[in-house]
Amino acid sequence: MNPVFNQHISIDFPNDISLTIKREDLIHPFVSGNKFRKLKYNLLQAKAENKETLLTFGGAFSNHIAAVAFAGKEQGFKTIGIIRGDELFDKIEENPTLKFAQENGMQFEFVSREEYRLKSETSYIEKLKDKFGDFYLVPEGGTNELAVKGCEEILTDEDSVFNYVCCAVGTCGTISGLINSAKENQKILGFPALKGDFLSDEIRIFAKKDNWNLISDYHFGGYGKINLELIEFINGFFEETKVPLDPIYTGKMVFGVIDLINKNYFPAHSKILLIHTGGLQGIEGMNIKLKQKKLPILKKND
User: Which of 62, 176, 181, 270 is an active site residue?
Assistant: First the structure.
């Protein structure tokens, strides 16, 4: 585990607002950001239960799939990934995420989108146990109570100087941990990466406080959707700050926060902390798609 640090963003914002980003993306070279936090206690629990295999779910470019494959190998587990999209069966070599996971020992089961929707059904999990034997189940995106416990460790006492803490929202584990560990003076703002009004209910399963708000205007059309405006923003932000952003989660959140600053959403003198949840491994796969669409590619290094 590498030390995480807070990086001040040296951009002049109106109303004396300051922006700082917590570089969780640097926590581990392959299990970065919130994936490290979410897996920490789940892997300990799997060992406590004497499990030898981890089974989880994810899509074609899933940060979670890549992280579970590497962490599982590092910790001595076999790993199985139930992958959404049976058309991907013969496209592993073309897909940087799946190729990485396979190189780290993950066994794949490609399923239709219809079957994938059964991932939370007890009967479907039992069917998978009949096929693969006993395993430790890590939910899609890694979110469960142990994941939230890990994400509660993101904020430190030194972060109490910030009025607002902002993060992207996917399966709600990260924001729930931040909500639970925030100080009384802090408001947690979540920026959903996907469309839908169901996320608030998901957060309430794990969150113990009401110090939060979801801002749903910056998903750019839905999960995995991206346009020229977002590409140019991410690349411009990297050129100015040397902080790479992923286009699925953190890039949309940072875009949203800066847009809200310019729209006077935040009170004057606000100190805002952005949580960089990693996900940079997905840029390579996204760039393949962008080239196909003849759009500029995303930068993540000089």
Answer: 62
Q: Is 32 annotated in the active site?
A: no
pLDDT-above-90 percentage for the chain: 91
Distance of alpha carbon 277 from alpha carbon 223, whole angstroms: 16
How far, CA to CA in Å, does 257 sit from each of 85, 121, 234, 239, 260?
33, 36, 13, 18, 5
Nearest Cα to Cα of residue 170 among 265, 89, 282: 282
Written as six digits, the tokens of 205 are 């399963």
> How far is the first Cα of the chain from the last one, in angstroms, to the nearest whole number?
24
3-state SS assignment for residue 88: helix
Residue with the two structure tokens 């139930």: 82
DSSP one-letter code for 75: H
Cβ density class 270-302: b for 16+ within 10 Å, e for less: bbbbbbbbbbbbbbbbbbeebeeeebeebbbee
With 70 as the cut, is the pLDDT of residue 224 above it?
A: yes
Q: Is the pLDDT of residue 301 over 80?
A: no
Provide the whole-model pTM: 0.94
For the segment 131-160, what is each residue's pLDDT rounded down to a tens digit? 999 999 999 999 999 999 999 999 999 999
User: Which pair of tokens denotes residue 225?
Assistant: 């959707």
Q: Which residues pair with 106 in a beta bridge?
A: 79
The partner residues of 79 in beta bridges, in order of sequence, read: 54, 106
29-48: pLDDT as tens digits: 899 899 999 999 999 999 99
Q: Who's near 174: CB < 8 A, 6+ residues apart? A: 34, 37, 38, 151, 154, 167, 168, 275, 277
Hey, is 291 helix, strand or coil? helix
> Residue 258 contacts by C-beta under 8 Å, 6 or more apart in sequence?
13, 19
Average pLDDT over the chain, rounded to whole? 95
Separation CA 96–CA 252 (nearest Å): 22
